[in-house]
Amino acid sequence: MAGEFGEVLRRLRTAAGLTQEELAERSEVSVRTIRGLETGKRTNPRMTTVQQLAKELALRPREREELLRAAVRRDQDGERPAEREPEAEPEAEAAPGTEADEDPSDDPADDGPGDPPAPDPPSTARHSAADPHPPSDPHPPSDPHPPSDPHPPSDPAEQLAALVTARWQREEEQRQVQDPFPLPVRWETAPEALTDHWANILRLPAQATARPLDLDGELGEIADAYRRIPSRRLVVLGRSGSGKTILALRFVLDHLRTRGTSEPVPVIFSIGAWNPTTITLRDWLAAQLTRDHPGYAARGRGRESLAAELVESGRVLPVLDGFDEIADGLRRPALEALNATTLPLVLTSRPAEYAAAVAETDVLTAAAAIRLTDLTLDDLAAYLPRTTRKPGREDPDANAWDPVLTALREQPRDRPDSPLATVLRTPLMVALARTIYSDTPDHDPACLLDTERFGSPEKLEDHLLDNFIPTVYRHRLHGSSSGGSHPGFDADRARHWLGYLAHHLTGLRTPDLAWWRLGNGLRRSTRTLVTAVLLALAIGLVDGAISFGVNGRVTGALLDASVVGLLAGLMFGFVHWLTYTAKGKQAAPSAVRLQLRRRPGATVWTAGPRLVIGTLGGAVFGFAYGFVVGMVITYAVTSDLSIIVHVGLVDGLVYGSVFGVATGLTFCLLGLLETPLDIDSAVNPRSLLTTNRGTVTTQLLVWAPTFGAVVGFGSGVAVDLLQGTVGPLVWTPEAAALLGVISGLGGAIGYALTLTAWGQWLVLTRIWLPLTGRLPWAVVTFLEDAYQRGVLRQAGAVYQFRHARLQQHLARHHRRAALHDDFIAPL
Fold first, then answer.
1. How far apart, in whole angstroms, are the C-alpha atoms of residue 666 and residue 673?
2. Residues 680, 685, 687, 690, Cα dihedral to 10°
3. Model confidence at 682: pLDDT above 60
4. So what's the pLDDT on residue 94?
5. Distance between CA 614 and CA 735 in Å, rounded?
6. What percent of the chain clears pLDDT 70, i.e. is strictly above it?
7. Cα four-point dihedral sign 553, 555, 556, 558
8. What is the pLDDT of residue 196?
């Protein structure tokens, strides 16, 4: 709401010690505009104005986020900002370039809800390029409904629309796609061989005459072009680096800006991670939606999750990015699965991979297709000179790119294009060249004209990809995304770590860099062994410390710690192997949190299944543990095999019954305390990790005392019940208490490290991978640093490499370096 934005702006301005006049002078926004925003007379401010105000106020990350979130909000009745009537009065005395000229409410042509605002003059600020494919709209709408809105819409689809808008707005800002202005992304209608019958696309009745649609256009027209297609199915084709992903991003933001409440919500899915032979499209979409928005794992009106209900009811418009990244043998079944649905969708792909899949089966049913075109020399001449620093007063028009552009223009037309002219036809390579040569004054782009050094486009592309990482790591960032001081990373070590990550993703055949799957780059046997060894050390240390504290004997404590640690490591290692490794799965982040103060109204799991599963699992584990412990202890006293086996069976029966009851009750209690995450919770890799760490910590606080108390008390009860039935049993209260404490702490540690995503992250990613040099110790900080430098991009709860070409290049470089060192990280 405008009033809320005005209050936030006024409070932050006052805290900065600035008057309205001083802020106006610094930001070049008129005083009347600032006064109108603070009093609520002006509504729906431009994001460029909000960002300029935030910059001049020198806001901290949280304050900046608060101001951006308050810029555009939904009213209580769900009205979108684009549908409000203009309230601002024209200001004749406002200077050109101020908010008075930019505010869409002053423009009579912007009264309608479907009319986009007139474009502003592009900014001339220079930063490191963070994305090779900028969209054309320099003024995307702000977050219309942030999670903190006091009046959130009740419809899950409307909440999803607000969350998606906020996410991609932030991502677009992080990628700095407007700096200094967007590179043009144009397209033309694809060849007929890659398009379905126009009668099917136009949804015409039998015998009707179909006339092909003219779909040629450019970036800012993608949402309108899609709405002109009656079937609402579109294929976007373009070669590597041509701008497909940024076109998908622009489509989502433009479609959401003019979307009606009855229309589905466009959501970007990286389809390269989909295996159509193991999961259906709808189930996969629901799973991906839950991953990025954990609150949608909550049950809807029926038995399904909110995510599944939205997908099944057609409230989600899938924007499937990266069909070409699906594994070779899976593209045909993937296209067949897409054709088996009637979902409206947008699909992006490189032409060759899509054409090959079409040749094996058929085109995407009822889908029109467009093909992205190359950049022109005029596009380069308009863009590259404006990305460099001005040389000085003597010749302000001189530019480092002038000799390059002149040489390209003077190239004879009867000769093949030079390698540089060929390479600079895609936004990706232009962005890399800009980063290396425009943003680094001591690099001369004229060297790119050296045809002896760069005799082919492939060599020149490798040169740009090789130099991108060293260039972006030359400078130390001033602050991390979390607001703390930035540690900085050496370029060579960063290349090694990024190479391992790229190699890891290549092995997993997915573009998604998920923190809970980083350990999957190791062999399955290595993962199981590392988990078992570290768990044995942790539980052995706990057992030894408690035993020494109770008995005061070092030798006895060391012996007990060795036996208990070894057995616990073997048992929990086997549980981990049986649960995940043998099935080829990994622990996934929890979509719930634990609420200790009261029982929540809606739990994800019922008490019954938890009780049964926990009891059976605990009984098996307890019997095996008791059997082994009983045999080991008895073997130290006698070598009679019958006595050893008898004692082992008795101890196994006692421990099995006690651990079965304790595990069942503890699992049941954990299930009763679980409640779904908030539906409007924003997710990024760090926040999802933090949430899961908090959930596991709460589980430990519940598990340790509950499990320990039941084991301690239950062991005495079990001994009394079995006394005489299986023979004379000796059990003291001290032994029961000691068993309860050690079992509570050991069981909690074992559960956390073997059966939770955060525990596996701690064991493999935070300890083992850094210990072996594959990753840095500060993994999260390193990933955030790479994101800020534009090496990675964020896609909900996961990171992805800025472009598949960069990932492939780093992975290939890592394999070559590993082979040179006679070592390669196992997959």
1. 11
2. 140
3. no
4. 38
5. 24
6. 81
7. positive
8. 93
| Helix, strand, coil share of the chain (percent; to 5) | 55, 5, 35
pLDDT of residue 393: 52
- 127-130: long-range pairs with CB below 8 Å, 24+: 127/176, 127/179, 127/439, 128/176, 128/435, 128/439, 128/472, 128/789, 128/790, 129/176, 129/179, 129/431, 129/432, 129/434, 129/435, 129/439, 129/790, 130/174, 130/175, 130/176, 130/177, 130/789, 130/790, 130/802
Residue 432 corresponds to which tokens in the numbers above? 């890399």
Q: Could you report the per-residue pLDDT of 78-133, keeping only the tens digit for each? A: 333 333 333 333 333 333 333 433 443 333 333 333 333 333 333 333 333 333 33
Kindly give the pairing relationship between strand 186-189 and strand 592-594. unpaired
On whether the CB atoms of residues 326 and 272 are closer than 8 A, the answer is: yes
Which is nearest to 520 in space by CA: 585, 579, 569? 585
Q: Tell me what pLDDT residue 396 has.
A: 59
With b meaning 16 or more CB within 10 Å and e meaning fewer, what string describes 624-641?
bbbbbbbbeebeeeeeee
Tokens of 23: 């802020």
More confident of the two residues 824 and 231: 231
List 233's β-bridge partners, or say none.
345
Cβ atoms of 598 and 655 closer than 8 Å: no
Report whether pLDDT(756) > 50.
yes
- Average per-residue pLDDT in the chain? 79
Q: 317: helix, coil or strand?
A: strand
Lateral strand order in the sheet of 233-237? 217-218, 186-189, 368-372, 233-237, 345-349, 316-321, 265-270
Beta strand 233-237 with 368-372 is parallel
Q: Which two tokens stand for residue 92?
A: 């004749």
- Is 758 in contact with 664 (CB distance < 8 Å)? no
Report the alpha-carbon distance of residue 408 to residue 746 in Å, rounded. Answer: 70
Angle between helices 733-755 and 641-673 (to 10 degrees): 60
Q: Would you mind telling me the total number of residues written for the chain in this entry?
A: 827
Give the residue ranges of DSSP H helices in 28-155.
31-39, 47-56, 61-71, 99-102
DSSP class per residue in 535-576? HHHHHHHHHHHHHHHHH--HHHHHHHHHHHHHHHHHHHHHHH
Q: Where are the alpha helices (DSSP H) in 384-456?
A: 402-409, 419-423, 427-433
**Directed axis angle between helix 31-39 and helix 2-15, to 10°?**
120
